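User: quick one, sequence for these tokens?
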């Protein structure tokens, strides 16, 4: 296979409770990424709505295939001719009190090609800081991936990053994406090491688009959107605030890492 270079981008946001405002921000940052040459762009987890209570996400959930958030994503993919990984948005679930935390993937012609519902729901209680996604989210049950021109792309969301068996179950991917809204507390301790570990053990690129900053309800997210290469090196990173992180997927480098250190072939289990 001839080596191929593809520019990819992670969008970092500090999303607000205002869906229209977040769509306007995403529109501007996706255009910036595409203008700089990215042909695959990922938005962060909960990019259309953050900084309220978790329960408020339920009232903003869209029906699959309908609503301003999905309309924007399909239109942005088509307008820029990019693969768009739509971070996550709240979609209605079969429980009226809960949503699915969902990644939708659009092809460059704006067609929806994949849906992944976050499987692992975050729970954390340190006394002053506590989260329990299971109160408002229904977990997904199906692994998500799709074929891009440079290879297979595996889908995961935020807390999923802590479960290496999910990535093994995807099969060999050239790229794993991790839209996230990591807490500042757990992110400063674990985010980079987990992303680099997933890249090293799966010998693939990892693109993580994050929320990064202080949201209107006072919640602080860790940011540090990044691209990690299959050797585990961080190629690009943005610590905090809105912006775009860009880098290249190099299939020649990927093949070289797998050839010189054939750990994936040496698996016994
Ligand atoms: O795993 C973590 O430390 C953070 C996860 C998280 O914030 C989430 O899944 O929303």
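Assistant:
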């Amino acid at each position: 296979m001839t080596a191929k270079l593809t520019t990819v981008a992670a969008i970092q946001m500090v999303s607000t409770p205002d869906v229209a405002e977040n769509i306007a921000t995403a529109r501007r940052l996706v255009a910036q990424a595409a203008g700089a040459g990215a042909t695959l762009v990922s938005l962060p987890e909960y990019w259309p709505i953050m900084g309220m209570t978790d329960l408020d996400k339920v009232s903003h959930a869209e029906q699959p295939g309908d609503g301003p958030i999905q309309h924007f994503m399909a239109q942005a993919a088509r307008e820029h001719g990019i693969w768009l990984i739509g971070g996550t948005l709240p979609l209605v679930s079969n429980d009226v009190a809960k949503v699915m935390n969902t990644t939708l993937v659009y092809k460059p012609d704006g067609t929806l090609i994949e849906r992944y519902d976050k499987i692992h729901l975050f729970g954390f209680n340190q006394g002053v800081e506590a989260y329990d996604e299971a109160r408002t989210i229904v977990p997904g049950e199906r692994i998500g991936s799709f074929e891009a021109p440079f290879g297979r792309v595996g889908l995961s969301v935020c807390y999923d990053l802590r479960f290496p068996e999910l990535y093994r179950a995807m099969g060999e991917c050239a790229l794993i994406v991790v839209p996230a809204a990591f807490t500042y507390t757990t992110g400063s301790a674990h985010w980079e090491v987990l992303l680099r570990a997933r890249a090293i053990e799966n010998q693939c690129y990892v693109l993580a688009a994050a929320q990064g900053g202080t949201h209107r309800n006072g919640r602080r997210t860790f940011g540090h959107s990044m691209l990690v290469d299959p050797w585990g090196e961080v190629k690009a990173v943005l610590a905090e605030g809105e912006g775009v992180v860009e880098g290249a997927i190099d299939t020649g480098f990927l093949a070289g890492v797998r050839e010189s250190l054939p750990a994936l072939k040496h698996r016994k289990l």
